[in-house]
Structures are given as structure tokens and as C-alpha cells.
Amino acid sequence: MKAVGLHRYLPIDDPEALLDVEIPQPVAAGRDLLVKVEAVSVNPVDYKVRSPKPAVETAPRVLGWDAAGTVAAVGPDVTLFKVGDPVFYAGSITRPGSNSEYQLVDERIVGRKPQSLDFAHAAALPLTAITAWEALFDRLRVSPQGADAGKTALIFGGAGGVGSIGIQLAKQLAKLTVIATASRPESAEWAKSLGADHIVNHYGDVPAQLKALGFDNVDYVLIFNDTDANFPAAADAIKPQGGIVTIVENAKPVAVELLKSKSAALHWEFMFTRAMFGTPDMIEQHRLLNEVARLVDAGTLRTTVGQTLGSIDAANLRRAHKLLEEGRAIGKLVLSGF
């Protein structure tokens, strides 16, 4: 089957950073679905895994952690899906990715594709929706039923993939007052169109900008880009006994002591945790994606496609990686068909 993979971990401008390859088609076993991949989207995790390092892969390593497609076969223990079902999912960081014609994925982390979306627009959602949902509702324990309505959330990276769905979840479900960061007019407009009440520039003095808007501090902070750069502002902005969640690993020590006097909490969110460790509640991601699909079909949430880049091949994926590395993407980058 066709796939895009790598043998060496190279800078994205190297034409061998990602290659068009042929690999064997896998066979479904256990609770696995064999999915015929129709569309994928690209996330920062893709280029972080691909980033230069000395390791060499003897067989092509396939990346990609967002897909929508059709169930082509099921393992003997599958109970949630049948052949022919349209699905969307983010997969597992420990298994071959979605940049291939067919992919194996555990049914417990797969959702039914929103009926109102085509495969391309559905592929934009899984990883970011899971991340934003878990960050807001599982880690910070905000009520998705609106019990915390009127509280304030500061979202760093409002126009990125996770921020784009995070704004919607915070506004539409939690009924929070949402302050998103954006540094360009087009990214600010995108964040506003998704429901952000206010915009601040993360390259400026964020606490001062919040005060100018009438907010001495906020109930929740969600760091969806650059923990190192944004943590000091987050610690300054958070209310006493508030909560901060980040999805981005820090490159240097974070001054968590800044939170002590406020008794504020710092949470990590990593959407691959359940699949990586085979946690007893893995199936929560199946339920979560089904709920996201329901909300999309109801018109409560919208897809977050920012740009479509053509077919799933090495050249287009190298282009997507480059756009993400340069920080120029708004919303999600999507590719369809081989």
C-alpha cells in the first residue's frame, strides 16, 4: 500500500525528510479496526517526532496522528464498529501513523465521523478536540454543562489547531468568558469568529493587556503554545486557587514556585496518555469523539480547517510540516486522498 514515511530524521527542507513509499498492508487483530484512510490533518507532534536526530529506521516510519476514513476490516474482538462505518480518530503515538492508505487503530479511541462533514473536514478535528476537551473538562474540571458559566479562561494560541476547538468548547459548552491570544490581524479575526470575547497579543505584556480589558486575573489558563515563553504571564494572570493546563513540553525549568502563594494548580494534558498506557478508561476517547461528532452535527461546534494542501503525498506533507514549524498556520492543515 502507499504511504509517506521516513528512514532518517532530517530538516524539512531536505527532500528525504519525508518519502513516498510502499509498505505491506496490515491485518486487523484483537480490538483493532483496519481503516481505509481518506483524509489526514497535520499537527505539531508530526514535526516534533520528525525533527533531526541521529536515529535511522530500517523500515519506513509512518507519521500522522489525525485521520478520517472507512472501516475496511475488524479484529475478532471488535464490538463498536462494523465494516463500512465512516470514522475519525487520532490514533496512538506508539503505533504506525495515518499517512498511509490503510491504518490499524484500537476501536476504543475511534469515533463515528460527523455525518454533516466530509472526510477532509472531519480529519481536522480528532487530536485537537480530544486535547482541548481533556484539558478543559478532565484536567481543569470545568463543567461542560455550563455550571461554571461566566468564569474567565485565557487561551494561549487561540488560532492554532487546539486553540481553535478549545475556544469553541469553552464558549459553547462551558459558557466561559474567553480571552484568546493572537499576534496577527488574521489570527485574531479567526479566534473571534470561533467565539473569543477578547484578544490579547502573547508577544506583548499579557497581564497589562488583561487589566486594560478589566480583568485583574482569570479563573483558568490554557497554554496551547510555548510553555517556556507563556508560563510567567500565566502565573501572573491566574486567580488564587485557579488552574493552569499546558500541552507543550518545556525546554527549560518552569518556575512553578510562582504558583505557591496562590495555591494554583498546574496540569499536564497529553492526549496520547490513554492509548500509550492502555488505561482502563481508554474508551472515554471513543465516547468523547462521538460527542464531538454529535455537537458538530447539531451546529454547536464547527470544523477547524484552515487550509487544504492537496493529496496525501510526501511533497504536500513536507509543505505542511514547514508551515507548522514556521508558526504560520491558522486552524488545521488537511490533505485528502492518495
What does this protein structure show overall?
This protein is α/β, with parallel strands linked by helices and 338 residues long. The protein is built from ten helices and 16 strands. Strand 9 (152-156), helix 4 (161-173) and strand 10 form a beta-alpha-beta unit. The longest helix is centred in the middle third of the chain and has 14 residues, at 126-139. The termini are close together. The model has no long low-confidence stretch (mean pLDDT 97).
Task: Describe the SSE topology.
Layout: E1 2-9, E2 19-22, E3 32-42, H1 44-50, E4 53-62, E5 67-74, E6 86-89, E7 102-106, E8 110-112, H2 119-123, H3 126-139, E9 152-156, H4 161-173, E10 177-181, H5 185-193, E11 198-200, H6 206-212, E12 218-223, H7 227-237, E13 238-246, E14 265-268, H8 273-277, H9 284-297, E15 305-308, H10 314-325, E16 332-336
Parallel strand pairs: 9-10, 9-12, 10-11, 12-13, 13-14, 15-16
Antiparallel strand pairs: 1-2, 1-4, 3-5, 3-7, 3-16, 5-6, 6-8
Helix pairs in contact: 3-4, 3-9
> Helical content, roughly?
25-40%
Number of strands: 16
CATH class of the largest domain: Alpha Beta
**Low-pLDDT windows of residues:** none
Task: State the helix count.
Answer: 10
Q: How far apart are the termini?
A: 10 Å
- Class from helix and strand fractions: alpha/beta
**What is the rounded Rg?**
20 Å
* General form: globular
The portion of residues forming beta strands comes to 25-35%
Q: Main beta sheet: strand number and arrangement?
A: 7 strands, mixed
CATH topology of the largest domain: Quinone Oxidoreductase, Chain A, domain 1
The run of helices and strands is: EEEHEEEEEHHEHEHEHEHEEHHEHE
CATH superfamily of the largest domain: Medium-chain alcohol dehydrogenases, catalytic domain
Q: How much is the average pLDDT?
A: 97
The second-level CATH architecture of the largest domain is Alpha-Beta Complex
Number of domains: 2
